[in-house]
Design brief:
single chain; 180 residues; alpha+beta; 8-stranded mixed β-sheet; 6 helices
Length: 180
């Protein structure tokens, strides 16, 4: 699925990624152990230019996911990604994940602003009513980001997910609008 426009927010914007957006910083960031510590799929194998391009293509062709790049207003290349996936029309729900792979942009609010913009778009345009995010218990930065973006903690999943070889707790956050 592809977004036909950009989603602007103060200091940056989101737009659908295309294969020409894949750059060395993106690939290298995904392979950085500090960046990918909490990214399940990414760290399972070494990322290459081709594997990242394939991921972009797969999301572009998908009918239930959308992969957006996160741009800072002053940058020509994106510094992160935000993905809505598992978009479900019957329940009007989806999952959201975010990665700021360029550590120069950590702590600058781009994650929160991106989540707010994408969530508003998904509610307004896709007519979703529930967007869910999971964060490992130890990933305090992600938890704080989703909370500051208006998501609320809903429940914990104990022992299902493995982090660094051990069963871990994943905290589930959601943004929701009331049913009409």
């Amino acid at each position: 699925m592809r977004l036909d426009t950009t989603l602007d927010f103060e200091g940056g914007y989101l737009r659908s990624l295309i294969t020409s957006d894949v750059h060395d910083g993106y690939v290298n960031g995904l392979n950085d152990k500090q960046v990918n510590k909490y990214l399940d799929g990414v760290k399972s194998s070494h990322q290459t230019f081709q594997s990242v391009k394939d991921f972009v293509i797969d999301n572009d062709k998908s009918s239930n996911s959308i992969l957006l790049g996160i741009w800072d207003d002053k940058s020509e290349i994106h510094c992160g990604t935000l993905r809505l996936h598992g978009i479900e029309s019957q329940h009007r729900s989806a999952h959201i994940g975010i990665c700021i792979f360029d550590k120069n942009f950590w702590g600058k609010g781009l994650g929160r602003k991106s989540i707010v913009a994408a969530t508003k778009w998904a509610f307004d345009v896709l007519k979703l009513r529930w967007i869910e995010a999971g964060a490992y218990k130890d990933n305090l930065a992600s938890q704080k980001t989703f909370l500051s973006a208006g998501y609320s903690w809903k429940y914990d999943i104990y022992g299902k997910y493995i982090l660094e070889g051990k069963p871990s707790i994943v905290k589930i956050f959601a943004a929701e609008i009331s049913s009409q």
